[in-house]
Write a structure and sequence with these properties.
45% of the residues lie in helices and 24% in strands. The protein has 30 helices and 25 strands. The structure holds ligand C2E and calcium ion (CA) (2 copies).
């Protein structure tokens, strides 16, 4: 039996390494049996354990053979994780008489821990009857090997399935490179077999985008030199010409021969890159014109300012705001407005000719950044070019429109702190250019800041004054040219006297417009004037209204409510509207004027002859009266040409059925000329300066005239 046992044993080939004296007889093999590292057993055909050597006892977690024999009764049901495995084993035994290296997963009997074994066995037959007596065999635990195999299989599967390529990359001391190992992903990414890259990877290097090649190489060398992880994103040009983005991530290790071996992973990130580019475009570029937006401009400006430090380099910024854009937009619609913006953007770019950064800040505002030795001078000449271009009617999207560009220029200097500050200065200068007329440029200097500071102070004072209702209203009499009697008065605002400085209305009214106070200012003067005038005998009261008030659709009904509330007859109220409103908002103006006239309120066109007066406007809009600006009156007594112009203007008004008031009459000798020319009403310091309500009232009570004899007899 021991011979049999040894037969089986020889199949496993594993013996205890303990030295023993050579066997004298077979009984000596007992020691071998006990010390063998391989499990030996006998079991009945039915699956009951008969004997087990110490190695098997230990493998099954028992402390003695007796304990084990008592416990094991059903090898098939209790030992194999997969009981069916026992029947395969028995079938094979029955078929061949032996089973070799039969691998199964079993339970370590006592602890029920799962382990892997390999088993070799045979059936022992009764010599006489030929009946099978029992099984005997060897069992060896191979859990560790099995796990290693499983891990290997896992890795193989993983490296096949993972979207990307796992690799080792070697750089030899002579600078040559190769992939000692790479998974199949390499072929997907680069289009060549990993095997080919094992010795030579020049094919890969030749595919890297020329713009990225140097960076890839530099960063790889750095990783090699400092033994720091290498992480890089770069483009390759695939065989079909398409661009792929690759991301690599690898850890280097120095090998004994001085080579550097990276263990890494690479994958394709083209999609991510494309969406990054899209997101970047959306965050940093203006969709309409494709120009950089405010954010990008500010970034670049910051960068430029930082680079400038200590170098003979200037940075200058042009802030460009289109004049008349809103009109084009309102008149032709947004699509045409968009065309205009695109055309303007293209024009800025072509005038800048690649030497600066053109950005769209939003709406009709653009900025151009210039850098260089003499950026400030270049900015001025660019501004002149832009103004020159916009001086001509602009052609865009099949249309022609008169558009201008108001430009502010700011130059970076030590006193300008940061990009936003530079932008603010340029903006301020632009604003000042805009105030001086269309299509002009202005260079920032500190006085603009002072002006702005002053404006801010006036605005805040004005806010309190309005809250306290402390503004005063004075009244300048208007004289009937025929009778010399006071036939009306113009309400004019005055800054309260107790406030230290006196701010004139043509300063604080525009400020009120800019800082959103114009509506309360407007309704204050209207209420006050109507209230006072209601107490006067029959004369008209003229109130100036700001163009901005007229933009409010509720304006006509607000006026009606105020007049009616004051007790003044509507027919006695006259509103003075300036031409600038008419020019800027033709359609809106027509509607507002019509509504107000329907309410029986008189409308006069103020300051006629001061700006760009147009007969077209007067004809188109139904005014009751024009007020001729004092600039047309001064000098009529001395210069015949001035008189002729005034006469012609008055004649034109007559032809259009308009009443005529002449403002700013200062000299007696002007009066007869004006009367002769057919002027209906006169107003000016000659008759009276603006006076308080009570003075006006006493003037009216006296005779209803202001020095009539002296003035009108002349
Ligand atoms: P305006 O509507 O043209 O008002 C006439 C201005 O000419 C007044 O100046 C008046 O004092 C001045 N003036 C009158 N007669 C003569 C004269 O013989 N010679 C000279 N040199 N000037 C004369 P004021 O009061 O300083 O007002 C200036 C401007 O302020 C007004 O021009 C008007 O545009 C604005 N303003 C005044 N009050 C108001 C108001 O209540 N609302 C609005 N929206 N604007 C107002
Ligand atoms: Ca006026
Ligand atoms: Ca006026």
């Amino acid at each position: 039996m021991l011979e049999d046992l040894l037969n089986v044993q020889s199949a496993t080939g594993e013996l205890s390494s303990r030295r023993a004296r050579p066997p004298q007889d077979l009984s000596d093999y007992r020691a071998l049996y006990d010390n063998l590292q391989v499990g030996l057993y006998r079991s009945t055909i039915a699956g009951k354990q008969i004997s087990a050597n110490p190695a098997l006892v230990q493998m099954n977690g028992f402390s003695s053979e007796a304990e084990m024999l008592a416990a094991v009764n059903d090898i098939a049901g209790e030992w194999y994780v997969e009981p069916g495995r026992r029947f395969e084993f028995m079938e094979e035994l029955a078929r061949n008489g032996v089973v070799t290296n039969f691998v199964s997963e079993i339970y370590r009997y006592k602890s029920r821990q799962r382990i892997w074994i390999t088993e070799t066995a045979r059936i022992v037959y009764d010599e006489a009857s030929g009946e099978p007596l029992f099984y005997e065999g060897t069992v060896q635990e191979i859990t560790e090997t099995q796990q290693r195999l499983a891990t290997g299989e896992l890795f193989r599967k993983f490296s096949q399935e993972v979207p990307g390529c796992l690799y080792q990359y070697r750089m030899r001391p002579d600078g040559s490179t190769c992939f000692p190992f790479a998974t199949g992903g390499l072929k997907d990414l680069f289009g060549f077999d990993p095997e080919n890259a094992m010795t030579d990877d020049r094919a890969m290097w030749s595919m890297i985008h020329p713009d990225d090649l140097e960076n890839v190489w530099t960063s790889l060398r750095k990783s090699a030199a400092d033994l720091v992880d290498w992480s890089h994103e770069f483009r390759i040009i695939a065989k079909d010409g398409s661009i792929k983005w690759i991301h690599e991530n690898a850890s280097p290790e120095r090998e004994p021969d001085g080579s550097i071996l990276w263990h890494g992973f690479m994958n394709e990130i083209t999609e991510r890159k494309q969406s990054e580019v899209r997101i970047h475009r959306m965050a940093y570029y203006d969709l309409l014109t494709g120009l950089p937006n405010r954010k990008l401009l500010l970034d670049r400006l910051d960068q430029a300012l930082a680079e400038m430090r200590g170098k003979a380099r200037d940075t200058a910024l042009l802030f460009v705001d289109l004049d008349g854009f809103k009109e084009v937009n309102d008149a032709y619609g947004h699509e045409v407005g968009d065309d205009l913006l695109r055309a303007a953007a293209a024009r800025f770019e072509s005038l800048t000719d690649g030497s600066g950064l053109v950005a769209r800040l939003g709406g009709d505002e653009f900025a151009i950044m210039l850098q260089g030795l003499d950026a400030a001078r270049a900015a001025v000449s660019l501004a002149q070019d832009i103004n020159g271009f916009f001086a001509e009617p602009m052609i865009f999207g099949g249309r022609v429109a008169a558009v201008g560009a108001s430009i502010g220029i700011a130059k970076a200097s030590d006193s300008v702190d940061g990009a936003s500050e530079l932008l603010r200065c340029a903006d301020l200068a632009m604003y000042s250019a805009k105030l001086s007329g269309r299509n002009r440029f202005c260079i920032y200097d500190k006085s603009l800041d002072r002006e702005r500071e002053e404006k801010r102070r006036i605005a805040s004072d004005l806010r309190t004054i309005l809250l306290e209702e402390a503004l005063r209203v004075v009244y300048q009499p208007i004289i009937d040219a025929r009778t010399g009697e006071i036939c009306g008065a113009e309400a004019l605002l005055r800054w309260p006297e107790n406030r230290g400085e006196i701010v004139p209305p043509d300063v604080f009214v525009p400020i009120a417009e800019q800082c959103g106070l114009i509506d309360s200012l407007g309704s204050f003067v209207l209420k006050e004037a109507c209230r006072q005038a209601a107490a006067w005998p029959g004369i008209a009261i003229s109130v100036n209204v700001s163009p901005l008030q007229l933009m409010n659709p509720a304006f006509p009904s607000q006026v009606a409510a105020i007049v009616d509330g004051s007790g003044l007859e509507r027919g006695r109220l006259e509103l003075e509207i300036t031409e600038s409103f008419i020019v800027d908002n033709a359609r809106r103006a027509a509607v507002v004027i019509a509504e107000l006239r329907l309410q029986n309120i008189t409308i006069s066109l103020d300051d006629f002859g001061s700006g760009f007066s147009s007969i077209g406007h007067i004809r188109r809009f139904k005014f009751d009266r024009i007020k001729i600006d004092r600039s047309m009156v001064s000098g009529i007594a001395d210069r015949p040409s001035a008189l002729k112009l005034l006469q012609a203007t008055i004649a034109m008004a007559h032809a259009l059925d308009l009443e005529v008031t002449v403002e700013g009459v200062e000299k007696e000798e002007e009066v007869p000329l004006l009367r002769l020319a057919g002027c209906h009403q006169m107003q000016g310091f000659l008759f009276s300066r603006p006076v308080s309500a009570s003075v006006l009232k006493s003037l009216l009570n006296k005779a209803g005239t202001v020095n009539p004899q002296r003035v009108l007899s002349a």
